[in-house]
Backbone:
């Protein structure tokens, strides 16, 4: 059993998650069984309670665990579904230790931060390895080397390496800036990061040097000399056009072979041909489409926060590549439509409208008017979770003529709550029990014959991942159905509405899902609903 720790030096946001996922893809393509673990240094027990504008998307696993978006990167690059043991935070680790202490499992011993916390981290890493039966387990340590918060996790890496010196590799992802006024690559920050890593008892075996440009031999030599590694083990990680190029670039520098050497594994040939073909297709769609993503979580100061919707964006890329389309996403702030309804006219120039998941009332009336505009103007529409609930509200108000139809999420006293809290959720909210208590993870969904959903999935039952508290109110289902809304997917007992759609004769494509199909889309296995949405969009203009 081999372990690779990936830690980041110099600064955050330089692609540690993608680097880890890419290492996974390379080693998997060599025939190894891989699993990947993400460690986040936060006290939050999981990512579910974090505001997406601060932390990015909350990614949901099959078993319902709410995690960091990097778990999504791992699943997409490895093409594997990962379990909750593969994600840990400081909060999760301490919660487990405190629970055990309360149960007298430490048998009267003093429970200490060191070694008991790193030992629990190692126990979890080994459990993840075992549950995946992995040859190689990747462990990404969140945060930056030198930060107080992640020292305890680096200590776990040190202890594991001390116990198994030949089975643990340490990879440091670093940043090599080219300051404008100097115009030259500067390696000093990387040297400091390496020393900082040494100070916690770890020596990098490999340094991935992220930089705006490829590293030259001179810089490689310099980093090697001052960071105490072989020049060949300094891997160039230049900025690339697409994240899907990263494994291919790493392989150019022989990263897979070098990792095998470090870990004492017999090297096998990497087969990245299908990946390469996909990576090329993500850049060269023959027909260009522009899709409007309408919502509210877009801006932070002057910057668009596309990280909040990373799985949606990637799912679109996967579907676009498979259909040979080039898709541009435009993020439209729904609050603008509330201020000035005439602005809705801008939607005419888009081939499709997508409303992703969300929470709360801000911008919702604007989204509902965008959905109405899409329905009335035959613009393909795809609603994910909140996007499905709001599609149902729009239909209820304007077609089924249920006046003031709303969701009780926005107005708890709404007379016509066509979207309402699920009964078991009412109790949880009353108790203030918010963490990890939504309807989470994979559930089966039964599909109805003769519907778009059934023909697209080409199956009568599918499993999809969920994250919601509210649902279509059972009291209005008959009325909505009579008015022409088709509930083409339901829970197997028929009680929960999972997919709503308009018939093909009435609209090019108008469909919403209570679940999040984006979580299951993979580069080489695009999600059929995303593919169908893009196919319809490409027909619409
Ligand atoms: N806010 C809605 C609910 O809780 C939708 C959630 C979502 O879009 N993920 O049901």
Residues:
């Amino acid at each position: 059993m081999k372990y690779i720790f990936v830690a980041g030096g110099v600064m955050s946001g330089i692609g540690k998650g993608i680097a880890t996922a890419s290492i996974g893809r390379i080693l998997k393509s060599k025939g190894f069984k891989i699993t990947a673990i993400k460690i986040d240094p936060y006290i939050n027990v999981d990512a579910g309670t974090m505001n997406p504008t601060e932390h990015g998307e909350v990614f949901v696993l099959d078993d319902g665990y709410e995690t960091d978006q990097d778990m999504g990167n791992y699943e997409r690059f490895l093409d594997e579904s990962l379990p909750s043991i593969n994600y840990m935070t400081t909060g999760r680790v301490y919660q487990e230790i405190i629970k055990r202490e309360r149960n007298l499992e430490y048998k009267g011993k003093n429970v200490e931060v060191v070694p008991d916390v790193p030992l629990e981290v190692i126990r979890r890493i080994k459990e993840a390895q075992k549950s995946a039966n992995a040859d190689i387990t990747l462990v990404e340590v969140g945060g930056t080397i030198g930060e107080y918060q992640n020292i305890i996790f680096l200590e776990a890496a040190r202890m594991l390496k001390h116990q198994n010196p030949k089975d643990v590799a340490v990879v440091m992802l670093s940043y090599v800036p080219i300051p404008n006024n100097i115009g030259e690559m500067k390696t000093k920050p990387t040297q400091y990061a390496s020393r900082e890593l040494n100070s916690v008892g770890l020596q990098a075996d490999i340094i991935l040097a992220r930089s705006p440009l490829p590293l030259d031999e001179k810089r490689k030599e310099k980093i090697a000399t001052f960071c105490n590694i072989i020049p060949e083990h300094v891997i160039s990680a230049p900025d690339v056009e697409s994240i899907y190029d990263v494994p291919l670039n790493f392989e150019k520098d022989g990263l897979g072979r070098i990792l095998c050497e470090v870990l004492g594994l017999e090297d096998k040939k990497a087969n990245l041909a299908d990946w390469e073909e996909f990576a090329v297709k993500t850049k060269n769609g023959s027909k260009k489409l522009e899709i409007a993503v309408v919502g509210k979580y877009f801006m932070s100061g002057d910057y668009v926060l596309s990280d909040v919707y990373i799985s949606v964006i990637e799912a679109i890329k996967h579907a676009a590549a498979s259909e040979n389309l080039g898709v541009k996403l435009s993020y439209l702030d729904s609050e603008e439509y509330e201020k000035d309804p005439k602005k809705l006219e801008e939607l005419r120039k888009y081939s499709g409208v997508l409303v992703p998941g969300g929470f709360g009332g801000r911008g919702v009336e604007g989204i509902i008017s965008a959905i109405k505009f899409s329905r009335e103007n035959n613009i393909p529409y795809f609603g994910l979770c909140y996007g499905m609930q709001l599609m149902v509200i729009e239909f209820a108000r304007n077609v089924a003529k249920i006046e003031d139809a709303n969701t009780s999420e926005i107005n708890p006293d709404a007379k016509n709550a066509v979207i309402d809290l699920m009964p078991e959720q009412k109790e949880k909210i009353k108790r203030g029990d918010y963490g990890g208590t939504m309807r989470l993870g994979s559930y089966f969904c039964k599909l109805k014959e003769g519907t778009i959903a059934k023909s697209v999935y080409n199956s009568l039952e599918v499993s999809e991942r969920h994250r919601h508290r509210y649902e279509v109110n059972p009291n209005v289902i008959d009325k909505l159905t009579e008015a022409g809304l088709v509930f083409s997917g339901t829970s197997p007992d028929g009680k929960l509405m999972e997919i709503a759609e308009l018939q093909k004769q009435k609209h090019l494509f108008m469909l919403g899902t209570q679940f999040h199909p984006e979580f299951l889309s993979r580069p080489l296995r695009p999600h059929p609903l995303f593919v169908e949405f893009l196919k319809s969009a490409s027909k619409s203009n």
About this structure: Residues 286-540 form a domain with the Rossmann fold fold (CATH 3.40.50.880). The first helix runs from residue 16 to 29. The chain has two domains: 2-277, 286-540.
